[in-house]
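Archive transcription. Copying these from loose printouts into the bound notebook so they stop getting lost. Printout 1 of 2:
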Amino acid sequence: MSLRRRFWRWVLRLAVALPIIAIMTVGAVLLWLSSSLPQLDGELRLAGIEGPVQLLRDRYGVPTIRADNRTDAAFGLGYAHAQDRFAQMELMRRGGSGRMSELVGSIALGLDRYTRGLGVLRQAESQAAALPPDLRPMFEAYAAGVNAWLGARAGALPWEVALLFYEPEPWRIADSMIWGRMMAFRLIGNWQAEALRARMAERLTQEQIEDLWPLSAVDDPVTLPGLGSGGASNVWAVSEPAALANDPHLGFTIPNIWYLARIETPEGVLAGATAPGVPLMVLGHNGSIAWGLTTPHTDTADVVTHPEVVSVRRETLAVRWGESVELELRRTRNGVVVSDFSDAMPEGWAVESPAFRDDDRTAEALGRLNEARDWPGFVAALRDFHSPQQNIVYADRTGRIGMVTPGRVPNRRDGFDVSAETGWSHLIPFDRLPRRADPPSGRIVNANNRLVDETYPYYLGREWEAPYRALRIETLLDAGTAHAAIQNDTVSLSARELLPYLLSAVPDVRLQAWDGDMARNRPEPLIYMAWVREAMRAVFADELGPLFEAWWAYRPLVLRRALLDRPAWCDDTGTKAKETCKDRLALAHRRAVAFLQERYGAETPPWGEVHRARFAHPVAGRIPLLRDLLDREIATGGGPTTVNRGSARFSDERHPFRHSHGAGYRAIYNLDDLDKSRFIQAVGQSGNPFSPHYDDLMELWRDGAYITLEPAKPPVHHLLLRPE
């Protein structure tokens, strides 16, 4: 056989063999990674528990944890969280402690700088050290449960960890505190608006800036009116029949931020939403009371332009496959110099807030809340709820309802804008914070709308959410609408309010009979949102210039104010002619029509075709092939101001209508029989893509369905943990 023929034969063999080898390699890797699925049945003997702990799972993977005491139950919750969500927990503690670069290299330096600069880990460690003796054993048991899973697992670690080839460190109490600190800084967002206003002041008048952040109208709904001297989410409580409904709104991810669980001990039942990494029930009921949360959008942070630096901290960031990075982080009396770790502000500017204090005891307060059995116990528990400030609504089995807005709030001389120095030295006393029990109306409603009226003696802020969701909830409650139907309502009052002004400029026949329902099967919501998106650009972009994109959002109150009372906004500053508001709305309509035709063709698709909830994986979502495999997407209804909230980012030119923020958790607590309470979370209980529970709740969530947390009889899976 000639040399040439031998050569080509070997080339042919390789051409056949290489794809086979590649397929076998991929198959072997997938088989290895699939071994990360947890053991859900049988019996294990583990150190760290005093008695048996049962993990009973239903058909959706929701665990009921049964134990003889709260500490063993916390061990079981830690074990269940680790089984289903360890990768999420690991990314949370690594990201929050500023140590992601140790795993993934310089790509994570921005995140690590940010969390180191905020001092998240330092605060978490201070909280852990300050835990009182009666709560510490529960946190220790939870960490022991996580570590028991790390030691007992037989297969691979979750893929996010396994493919980085490292062994996770043991879980610590401080790691559990990181979640709360990250959530606090996530929900204290008014400083970003302050910084934006400071940059706008270089090109706009103070009156123009106030137009862009308008005050609430006199007749807007107020959650706690007439107090006198005494993120977005929805919550309402009614006293007859006693019920509480809550759906907190956050950005979408997969796995979801929330994890459903039921915990049964001789002390009672806890059921609702937990957060992987945390041994507490964040939202739920304890058999006697139920509670729900919304963000009040109060002003708890200030931007300071020339702060006094009181200390400098030097830290080293270890970087995998690279050189370590040295950080120099300056602290002020009440905050941090942001320019040391972020380009969000000019050099030397600081953010100051009570949230930066190391003596924050919010985790302790949440532990006390889990144990409260009545209104006095509920109020007492929240005395140490420091940050982020939240509206926490209460209902109990006697029909009593109430609300407290705990948190550390600066007692300011003034507010709203950037200052050269901190405008406060004291906090509003806890007993003077907004609070009410058993209002005469028999109901409490909050949808991030205005919290107090002008009789309240302290400054809380002015950046309340627009009143549309609160108004719609009140109207539906008045009509006797079922709580589930209210939570899933997609009627936009803001669309009903703005539409006449749009149609007066261009009588688009496709919108003339539309009732504002942003159902996913209708095309009108897409036409309307495309028009408003372009109207915001046509009216405001010329004045705001390069700052427009940072401000660009669905702001119906601002647009309506410009059209009605501030027509100067409608004049294009780049032309000599004087344009009217109708001119700008007509231009916006032409641009919207052109956009829709170019993007979607001659026939406008239904809203749900473009308004799709995108659940992006924090790792896979950044990698093209993995993104397609592991991210999830589903058509949804709703809009930015509907009760079933469907917010999008106008500034995202590729996906300006993608549903990116909304109710990842819904609950309706039936105080007459708390076991009949209904729950849903957005995606699935497991963070493991090999699990059937990775996304099996997604369609139920989209369709407005619920499950109960009563344990299945018999359970689908039963794992018994016994003392070693």
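Printout 2 of 2:
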Amino acid sequence: MKGFLKTALATLVGLLVFTAVAVAIAAVALAGLVASDESGRSVKDKSILRINLSGTIEEMRRDNPLSLLQDDGSAPYGLDELLDAIRKAKTNSKVRGIYIEGGIPLAAPATLEEIRQALLSFRESGKFVYAYADTYSQGGYYVCSAADTLLVNPSGSIDWHGLASQPVFYTGLLEKLGVKVQVFKVGTYKSAVEPYVNTQMSEANREQVTSYLTSLWHRMLGEVAASRGIEATELNALADSFMLLRPAEEAVAQRLADRTAYADEVKAMLKTRMGLGEGDKLTFVSVQGMAKTDDGFKSQDEIAVYYAFGQIITTELPYIDTYSGYISSDKMAKDLQKLRNDKGVKAVVLRVNSPGGSAYASEQICHEVELLRKEKPVVVSMGGYAASGGYYISSNASKIYAEPTTLTGSIGIFGLIPDLSELLTEKLGVRFDVVKTNALSDFGSLSRPLNAEEGRLMQGEIDRGYETFVSRVAQGRGMTKETVRQIGEGRVWTGEQAIEIGLVDELGNLDDAVEGAAALAELKDYHTATYPTPTPWYTALLGREEEGYIDSRMRSLAGEYYPVFTLLRTLEDQDRIQARLPYDPNIY
């Protein structure tokens, strides 16, 4: 008994000591987080803004202490934060230049273009931009080509190969499983259904993909050619030679880079540029630190910048948060109502980056945008994608801005209903029976495909949804319905193409959209505020944000297959009628 008490007491003491140590470590960690949160309030003299151009670049910054403590690079960049940091570095006298560590940024072409434009604007201040990488991905090189000095490791390379889109088709797999997909759609170019019923691209889809890929590539060629002093035809020829597998010296010889250098040599070059001695240390400021510096005076008049990015769904789901890449029409409608009733908000900029989603949810958001527009100017800034449902929610704005490389349009509707009867009955041996009071009481049963009458009813609902979509676009853009149908049919356009057919008003970035909103609201002095309000980092310790961290890890690990996983995860919660692109245009 005495031995048992000693053991129990020792265990209790051990637990108390462990708890005390754990609390102490947590306190130190929290202090570190608080310190990091406040670290950007001031910038040291002779600083260089350092940008690590690698990993996922999302529309909005996500504060997550789990990723900050682990510091494993899984936390995604926020485009808003990155652009804000570059903008502030341009006017801050203590910042002398930008140093970009090139890599593999995971972002849409329009997102990369917006970063590139910010760097070119920064260079107008007369400050330097250095870029260095062991190996540049094509997207990373596209951004870094805006630097005045571009360096590559002697053993590295520059990926420059052109653009390709490779959709994946699941029809053969589904056939082996005994699954058939019943398709209902409107739109010759509405290709989102093709992976489930075709084994290759339709001619219409091949036509539209060829068109927008060519537009994107010509834009990239023109911009890189202007920055590097190379003819676009030469750049195109270099893409044909697949530069990734060629030595770095050849990239220098072809003027894709200025010279080769190792990392220590790059640091020495930066010291020389900064007028520092060999024993002096370079002073870097992070993107997060730069973005947290104070802007100074703020007018009482506000332009609200509301970020709407990701798939469009109706109801907030318990396993996702605001930053997991979903637009809930329930939440966004409430948010827009608050902005409509806020007298201090003089105009609203909707930053839309969405491939679409639920047609019903898109209609609810479109209606709220229409109500908001009656009270104050609403300007849309399109990011990487504003297609299908993403265009639906944009169509009623006072003015629409898009990047030349934005993918937009895709005005069309579809519905997919799986037929699992062969899988269940023939392959798994499951049998069904039914008793019903009316002819269609078992509509949607897993035991059988839809009959002719059910198919007719489904197609009718799709047709009505498309007609509503067309009407909204016609009303918002001041077009006839016939004109909208001619440029609709589910066809995807780049921003550069969309402005020619009237789907977009001007080519420009988020800053241009904010300036446009100020002009419409007749504001000279104003400040901007971001919505939905970012969740403070400390709330992550209370629960839900942990799922956001897990979500970012999945995104990092799954790469291009992440959209497939997210759709599977939300399949049961998806509305039966969709206005969306395929999972992803899969451009690389």
